[in-house]
Specification:
alpha/beta; 2,3-Dihydroxybiphenyl 1,2-Dioxygenase, domain 1; 2 domains; nine-stranded mixed beta sheet; eight-stranded mixed beta sheet; globular
């Protein structure tokens, strides 16, 4: 399969399972600096963002109705944003015609979404925003039965791009660090070649560093310098998701993380300085791996100069 069905703009959010969604929401506010935008008590989930998109993280309880029996903390799904609903529907039709199978299509009020599994069994969402002002539509606590959405049939697909453009990023001053956005997710692939083919051909990302025959691949959307990273399965990790990359406001935030993350109940794993990026790598109280970073000179030349042993922590 060589056709590219979509042209994602960027990674938009990471949806993760946590042991206690209320506690996790407080932790991500007080430590990582993300505010709760809305929550769904019936789903046991908190959705947090500082304005980058309608949520950067979804924190879903392991006892949620969406969790499997015996669910442990870890990745639920990742989501990629496309330019418009019309682009989403066109890609969907082309993909289905080529034999691609989707688990479901969903109406989320502020977005219309497609869900499917990648070759390793991870869930992937591709979506388009369908409202200008998501804060008016998604806030506080709510429970609502989702209407059925059939791509291209339920409504005339919107051609206007409605994704956030230069959004105001809110800052929670008392937080330990000041997270700006979820920037990328890195995975350790069980079937590296199949995963590379899926994320480049079916999802539509572009390899900007590394490749199918390399040790890793840094993949990007049309408005990014890195949204998704694939590593071969010889990279050490305690879960398939190697890390979630969170861009923070300044290097002072990284200093604060070094000093305070373990007092806050997290765990300091590593810290690295490079011309391309400075990183403090931590685990949250559930063991979810978070790469806090500030880009310096994030250029292809500098990225390619990163030592292979350090790449899983810096990229």
């Amino acid at each position: 399969m060589t056709s590219r069905f979509f042209q994602p703009r960027r990674l938009a959010h990471a949806n993760v399972f946590v042991s206690d969604y209320k506690r996790a929401s407080d932790y991500y506010r007080d430590v990582f600096g993300f505010e709760e935008v809305y929550n769904q008590p019936d789903n046991k989930a908190s959705f947090i963002s500082n304005g980058n998109t309608y949520h950067d993280f979804a924190l879903v309880d392991i006892n949620s109705r969406y969790a499997k029996p015996g669910q442990r903390p870890g990745l639920n799904h990742i989501a990629f944003e496309v330019e418009s609903e019309a682009a989403l529907v066109d890609g969907y039709r082309a993909a289905v015609a080529a034999g691609v199978v989707y688990r479901s299509t969903e109406d989320h009020d502020v977005a219309h979404s497609l869900y499917q599994k990648d070759p390793d069994g991870n869930e992937v969402e591709i979506y388009a925003d369908v409202v200008h002002d998501w804060r008016s539509a998604r806030h506080g606590s709510f429970s609502k039965k989702k209407p059925k959405w059939v791509p291209g049939e339920t409504n005339e697909p919107l051609t206007e791009p409605l994704h956030p453009v230069n959004p105001e990023i809110r800052v929670i001053e008392p937080s330990l660090v000041h997270g700006r956005r979820v920037a990328h997710v890195a995975m350790v692939a069980q079937d590296y070649e199949a995963m590379f083919d899926f994320y480049t051909n079916v999802v539509g990302l572009n390899a900007i560093v590394g490749g199918r025959d390399q040790a890793f691949a840094l993949l990007a959307g049309t408005h990014s310098m890195g949204d998704f990273v694939l590593y071969r399965n010889d990279v050490e990790t305690h879960m398939p998701m190697h890390h979630i990359g969170v861009e923070v406001g300044s290097e002072a935030d990284l200093d604060a993380a070094l000093e305070g993350i373990e007092r806050s109940g997290g765990k300091l794993i590593a810290a690295h300085d490079h011309a391309a990026r400075r990183v403090v790598f931590v685990h949250d109280p559930d063991g979810l791996p978070i790469q806090l970073f500030v880009n310096r000179e994030w250029t292809l030349e500098n990225i390619r100069s990163i030592d292979a042993k350090l790449a899983p922590y810096l990229i």
